[in-house]
Amino acid sequence: DTEVTQTPKHLVMGMTNKKSLKCEQHMGHRAMYWYKQKAKKPPELMFVYSYEKLSINESVPSRFSPECPNSSLLNLHLHALQPEDSALYLCASSQAREDVNSPLHFGNGTRLTVT
Amino acid sequence: AQKVTQAQTEISVVEKEDVTLDCVYETRDTTYYLFWYKQPPSGELVFLIRRNSFDEQNEISGRYSWNFQKSTSSFNFTITASQVVDSAVYFCALSEAPRGADGLTFGKGTHLIIQP
After folding, report:
1. Which of A1, A10, B15, B96 is the right S-S partner for B29, CB 3.0 to 4.6 Å?
2. Chain A residues bordering chain B (beta-carbon distance below 8 Å)
3. Omega within 30 of 0 (cis) for the link into A8
4. What is the pLDDT of residue B99?
């Protein structure tokens, strides 16, 4: 069982909907990440939070809005998405962003379909 | 710039055969880390192994083994006596010390199919 929990597992939403993806970890990790993965492609980094502060935004459109309410939780708020945003959204955590030796622990992902 | 190449897009073998997944990397840093992740059909990325640039010792974990060769910039992964449960996409990844954990660069992945 993964130690990073993501909900929901599947999400279908229309282009005018507002929804949120949730991620939770209780490993005491201080860095949390959102990745986007299209079919048959490797994961692509979207956002990095370090000590609950946004450290990296990899030029992600504003229709994706991350939030880190506390050190264990990470949300991704979705609004006015496009069909091309359909993908697997993976949350990950690591002990610390600056610790290159720390592997990322990934959740099961949320498979998002935008209709 | 760092780069990870997994030239094998898809490999299909019959159960119990040995199989090697290739990974070649490029980096200008002397301190870096290499990783292998497994992604089964369920979606999660499972961490398999980490190796730093100063440790060229090969590693064996059960049926899994890894061969790190700095001379050829390769970090290959071998599964011995493959099983159907090994079917997954396997990603090799590279992280350079200055960029920290979020500087992880993935290869394109190798889809491994183990046929019964």
Report:
1. B96
2. 2, 31, 33, 40-43, 45, 48, 55-56, 88, 90, 92, 94-109, 111
3. yes
4. 67
Report the alpha-carbon distance of residue A34 to residue A40 in Å, rounded. Answer: 18
CB contact under 8 A, A94 and B101: yes
Residue B67 structure tokens = 């061969």
Q: What is the rounded distance in angstroms from the CA atom of residue A28 to the CA atom of residue B77?
A: 30
Give residues with Cβ within 8 angstroms of B29, minimum separation 6: B2, B53, B96, B97, B98
CB contact under 8 A, B101 and A56: no
What CA–CA distances, in Å, run from B40 to A41, A71, B1, B56, B67?
A: 14, 28, 29, 28, 22
pLDDT of B58 strictly over 60: yes
Per the structure block, which two tokens stand in for A68?
A: 């880190």
The answer to whether B42 contacts chain A (CB < 8 Å) is yes
What's the gap between Cα A71 and its chain centre? 14
Q: A interface mutation test: which of B5, B9, B32, B44 has the most A CBs within 10 A? A: B44
Distance from chain centroid for Cα B102: 18
**B92: amino acid identity, one letter:** C
Q: B106 and A92 in contact by Cβ < 8 A?
A: no
For residue range A11-55, list pLDDT tens digits in order.
999 998 999 999 999 999 999 999 999 998 999 999 999 999 998
Residues of B in contact with A42 (CB under 8 A): 91, 106-109
